TrEMBL record:
First and last residue of the signal peptide: none
InterPro entries given in the database record: ATPase_NBD, ROK
UniProt record similarity statement: Belongs to the ROK (NagC/XylR) family.
Protein name, entry field: ROK family protein
Originating organism: Pedobacter endophyticus
PANTHER family, A to Z: BIFUNCTIONAL UDP-N-ACETYLGLUCOSAMINE 2-EPIMERASE_N-ACETYLMANNOSAMINE KINASE (PTHR18964:SF149), ROK (REPRESSOR, ORF, KINASE) FAMILY (PTHR18964)
Regions crossing the membrane: none
Pfam family, one: ROK
Length: 285
């Protein structure tokens, strides 16, 4: 009777969000959404326990199918449930572990199926189903946060894109479009020390150095999208993640750059927030 109610989970570098999703309606069930901070530098058993405690709270919020769909950052073996994250500033303790087995054991009989999907793919699937991208046939989605997530959407179906390791400006995209770049650049230009991007965004009155960083980010992202557009003629870009919350600091510059390069694509900031990944994960299984 409750096969349409699936637990959608979004795991980030510093948090986990979980909720029950009605996949037929594309909505989150009232009272089922829970979000907690996570110490991503902790050992495997601590991380698993923290994740599962949040998921259990969502599962207990209403009748459901017993299925859990998890939007997980990469690199990760999504089919077999094994983490390959190492040296990325998050979840090193899970490296090489069978995360699916550990989570099924911790969750117990409340869960009969658990699957993993690339987090950017889930984010874009949610946007394709119920967001700004639903009217476009060929869409690229990027999550800007602790890492650089990417997905491609063709005719309403999102698939992983893995552009985080795409060669770019002498490095890879992850080097230029993740929180580490922002922190390093701001510290370099200002001579000050900030710990994370949230500290920057929460204090957006930091003046010229902050604007310089976001201007450079917009230029870099514009260059990347221009290069990508030559290979794949997408007609829409959707941006999500914590850095996208500061879109007023870079979106006008990005749109202007794309216009000057004759790249005729629509660029949207996700209005669904974390709900996009939760709904997208649940709708992907």
């Amino acid at each position: 009777m409750h096969e349409n109610i699936i637990a959608g989970v979004d795991i980030g570098g510093s948090h986990i969000t979980s909720a029950l999703v009605d996949v037929n309606q594309g909505v989150i069930l009232a009272g089922s959404l829970h979000r907690e901070k996570i110490d991503s530098s902790a050992e495997a058993d601590q991380v698993i326990a923290a994740w599962c405690n949040v998921i259990k709270r969502s599962l207990q919020a209403g009748n459901n199918s017993g299925r859990v769909a998890i939007a997980m950052p990469g690199p990760f073996d999504y089919e077999n449930g094994i983490s390959h994250m190492i040296g990325m500033g998050k979840y090193d303790g899970l490296y090489g572990h069978n995360v699916r087995s550990l989570m099924l054991k911790a969750l117990g009989i409340a869960v009969n199926d658990l699957c993993f999907i690339n987090d950017a793919g889930c984010f874009l699937q949610g946007e394709l189903s119920h967001g700004a991208a639903r009217d476009y046939a060929n869409v690229m989605g990027f999550t800007l946060g602790t890492g650089f997530g990417s997905a491609a959407g063709i005719q309403g179906k999102a698939t992983d894109a893995d552009y985080w390791c795409y060669p770019f400006m002498g490095g890879i995209c992850e080097d230029f479009f993740s929180s580490k770049w922002f922190v390093a650049k701001y510290n370099q230009y200002s001579g000050l020390e900030v710990a994370n991007v949230k500290e920057l965004i929460d204090n957006s009155d930091r003046g010229s150095h902050l604007l310089q960083v976001f201007d450079e980010f917009a230029m870099n992202l514009g260059i990347f999208l221009t290069q990508l557009h030559k290979k794949s003629k997408f007609d829409c870009v959707v941006l999500g993640g914590n850095i996208a919350n500061a879109s007023t600091l870079f979106l006008p510059q990005l749109r202007y750059y794309l216009q000057t390069m004759s790249v005729a694509v629509s660029v949207y900031i996700s209005t669904r927030g974390e709900a996009a990944a939760l709904i997208g994960a649940a709708c992907s299984v």
